[in-house]
Design brief:
262 residues; alpha+beta; six-stranded antiparallel sheet; three-stranded antiparallel sheet
């Protein structure tokens, strides 16, 4: 089965050994510095809120005194071989939305929870149902260390919840959002692999099977009014930076969506 057909049917696809060790090392060096700064700035919240991810790794505050590194980071995030591959799979214009870094929680007792990404937004669930099949919002996971870090329910990118899935996701009728769900698939990845999955598929992280987690997610997709409002222009290249990014199409589309950038 080709990758486009697999995603259409299952809502996820793996590109094995897509990046070479040097490419992963280049990403890791920049991301480790950003992550260390973020941990220092968010030490209390990391523990008290049991955080499992950070976002907006391209924010300018992580590049003060080394602004040229930000342009380098933008180029590393979207090499042409990655954008070309996704465009060949999805046959549509794709824009860059944000970045996330996933890690294990400080609290070892925290349980992973089933969700669709937009369920934590103010968008009414009925609106999400109505637009579900009109949206293409993707996570492009690039693990920096080996992980069994994502569990998902295939095909839920093209259908809404069963009664059990809804009860578990929203903890209705005595259910908890960490309960096992039928049909789930645990994804195992090595550094260099790429996992592409729908942000609206039912999914959760996995902490217990991973002594450490460090996974970069690129949040990309087809523009849609429900998610465009969450796009932060400060996370995008500036007018000057965009001139020095060779493969800039996804950033250009994002910059055209938001009202202003510097």
């Amino acid at each position: 089965m080709n990758t486009a057909k697999q995603f259409e049917e299952q809502g996820h696809v793996i590109l094995p050994r897509f990046f070479n060790p040097e490419e992963i090392d280049q990403l890791t060096r920049i991301i480790d510095r950003i992550y260390n700064q973020w941990q220092e700035e968010n030490h209390d919240a990391l523990i008290e809120q049991k955080l499992i991810n950070m976002h907006s790794l391209t924010n300018p505050r992580y590049f003060q005194g080394c602004s040229h590194k930000r342009t380098e980071f933008f180029e590393l995030l979207l090499p042409s071989k990655l954008t070309n591959r996704l465009e060949s799979i999805f046959k549509t214009d794709i824009y860059f939305h944000n970045t996330q870094l996933f890690f294990n929680p400080h609290d070892k007792e925290k349980r992973p929870y089933w969700h669709r990404d937009l369920q934590y937004s103010p968008i009414d669930d009925n609106v999400q149902v109505a637009e579900h099949n009109n949206m293409l919002s993707l996570h492009v996971r690039i693990p920096l260390v080996a992980e069994k870090g994502v569990e998902l329910i295939p095909e839920t990118h093209k259908r809404w919840d069963t009664e059990l899935e809804r009860n578990v996701r929203f903890e209705h009728n005595g259910h908890r959002n960490y309960e096992s769900l039928p049909g789930s698939v645990l994804i195992e990845l090595e550094p260099g692999d790429v996992l592409i999955f729908s942000a609206q598929i039912i999914h959760r992280g996995n902490y217990a099977l991973n002594p450490t987690r460090k996974a970069l997610d690129l949040c990309v997709g087809k523009p849609h009014p429900l998610v465009e409002s969450f796009l932060d222009p400060t996370d995008l290249p500036t007018d000057e930076e965009i001139k020095h990014i060779q493969n800039s199409n996804w950033y250009d589309l994002a910059r055209n969506i938001v009202p202003s950038h510097n």
